[in-house]
């Protein structure tokens, strides 16, 4: 797994352990096993949600897909050809492999090990996400995530924006005892900020725990909290609920701290316990959803479908512009 790492965690700034005398650790509301399926042109996924979890417990998040890890033979790699979005943000985090993105605003680029693509669809955009020519020709391992983040009604009509967040731009931190590496992709954690600019207040972390290590994080009041395991096994919460690869822990709302622990002995190919830990401030607005469109009313969904059919969400191919790192693509007319 070529995600960003460091040789010596002790050289990193540390996230302070929450004081148990001042705040309680959140308990685990439930553990969900991701469901297998296929997306795009036929690539395999494990979908952590939506599913059996009530949307109010994941708000402002709409979906989490775990892509792979799958080892493609030459010529077999698959992606998601041109398709529309409106009303939310897609966050793609790549661990292995490489994905080439292009959109109808002229934005795009290649993301690979440790990189994040943050696309705010806003008022609407067309894009595709495909394996690079090199990966298609040679094959190789593809391992990534896509997280959908809702936008409040006031932001759904904003112009589209694209952020290309390279792995070396992530904020790297250590747990209080040096047993875990924390890659802060977006949001604020104990006074440290990640590089991702978010319309909806969230925190997104990739944490790697050494065998037997425990990670305790301060967590803001009013944010929900989830942890998805994608390598190794361990436990979550003060009750030590078991958590293994492909499972999502949903934390309760009470308390200002989160805790996860890696099993002292890791079974299988993983040497460590890897998790996505994320949460955000719920939007608490009505949701009308139809495929790649997420709005507030059925009338807005009907409008999105008509706008797409009429070409008002953009056309392809687009004339690509040079977009600086972290910048936004030029907006459509």
TrEMBL record:
Highest taxon listed in the record's lineage: Bacteria
Protein name, UniProt field: Pirin family protein
Pfam families the record matches: Pirin, Pirin_C
Classification via InterPro entries: Pirin, Pirin_C_dom, Pirin_N_dom, RmlC-like_jellyroll, RmlC_Cupin_sf
Assigned protein family: Belongs to the pirin family.
Pirin C-terminal domain residues: 205-313
Xref: CDD domains: cupin_pirin_C, cupin_pirin_N
Residues in Pirin N-terminal domain copies: 44-149
């Amino acid at each position: 797994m070529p995600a960003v790492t460091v040789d010596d965690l002790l050289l990193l700034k540390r996230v302070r352990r929450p004081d148990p005398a001042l705040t309680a650790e959140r308990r685990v509301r439930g553990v969900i096993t991701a469901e297998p399926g296929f997306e795009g042109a036929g690539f395999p996924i494990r979908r952590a949600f939506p599913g059996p979890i009530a949307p109010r417990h994941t708000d402002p998040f709409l979906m989490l897909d775990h892509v792979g890890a799958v080892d493609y033979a030459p010529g077999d790699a698959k992606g998601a050809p041109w398709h529309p979005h409106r009303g939310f943000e897609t966050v793609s985090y790549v661990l292995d492999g490489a994905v080439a993105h292009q959109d109808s605003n002229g934005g795009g680029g290649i993301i690979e090990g440790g990189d994040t693509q943050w696309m705010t669809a806003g008022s609407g955009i067309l894009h595709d996400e495909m394996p690079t020519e090199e990966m298609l020709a040679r094959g190789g391992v593809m391992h990534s995530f896509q997280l959908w983040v809702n936008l409040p009604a006031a932001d759904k009509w904003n112009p589209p924006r694209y952020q290309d967040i390279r792995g070396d731009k992530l904020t790297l931190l250590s747990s209080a005892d040096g047993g875990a590496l924390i890659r802060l992709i977006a949001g604020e954690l104990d006074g440290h900020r990640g590089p991702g600019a978010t319309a909806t207040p969230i925190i997104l972390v990739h944490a790697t725990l050494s065998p037997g290590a425990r990670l305790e994080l301060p967590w803001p009041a009013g944010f929900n909290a989830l942890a998805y395991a994608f390598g190794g096994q361990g436990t979550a919460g003060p009750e030590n609920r078991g958590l293994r690869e492909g499972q999502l822990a949903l934390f309760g709302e009470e308390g200002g701290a989160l805790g996860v622990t890696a099993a002292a002995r890791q079974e299988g190919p993983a040497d460590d316990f890897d998790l996505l830990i994320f949460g955000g401030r719920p939007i608490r607005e009505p949701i009308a959803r139809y495929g790649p469109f997420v709005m507030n009313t059925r009338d807005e969904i009907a409008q999105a479908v008509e706008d797409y059919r009429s070409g008002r969400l953009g056309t392809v191919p687009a004339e690509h512009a040079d977009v600086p790192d972290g910048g936004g693509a030029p907006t459509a007319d």
